[in-house]
Amino acid sequence: MNNTQKELSWFKLSLLHFLYESHPELTEDTNLINARGDLAAETYSEAIANGHNHQEAEELAHDVLYKGLHFSKHDTLVTVIWNEFSGEIPMDEAKEYAIKLLPKMEAVFSKYPLNDEFAYSTHFSSLYTELTGVLSIWIEENELQ
Length: 145
Fold this sequence. Notes:
By secondary structure, the protein is an all-alpha fold. It has 2 domains: 3-66, Helicase, Ruva Protein, domain 3; 73-141, Helicase, Ruva Protein, domain 3. The protein is built from 6 helices and no strands. The protein has helices at residues 3-22, 30-49, 54-66, 73-84, 94-109, 124-141. α2 runs antiparallel to α3, α4 (73-84) crosses α5 (94-109) and α4 crosses α6.
């Protein structure tokens, strides 16, 4: 295996790990994983060939690898569960609940202009509040209180 193949594998594994943690709904998207991993490896190699050091090349590759993935619906749901519903949903089960709840929350998320900077926007608190309300109703309907 040459260095390019090792880099390629590392970028794909890095992305897959990130997806498992923050975007579990995308872990089966092999096209995304392969395309991003290949592009990141190519970006890294080109950056090194153009005189960038390892750290600079890795930063450029990561920009490509994680573009559009910095905001996570899953992580947002986990945060709402931890902060607002820790009495109803044990913290160690929050990630599992978030995976199950995500399809039910898509209508809420679809109202907002989600992007990499969304968590720092003025709209984030509205999303958080709306998710809290919808989750509160769901918890009551499912008798988790």
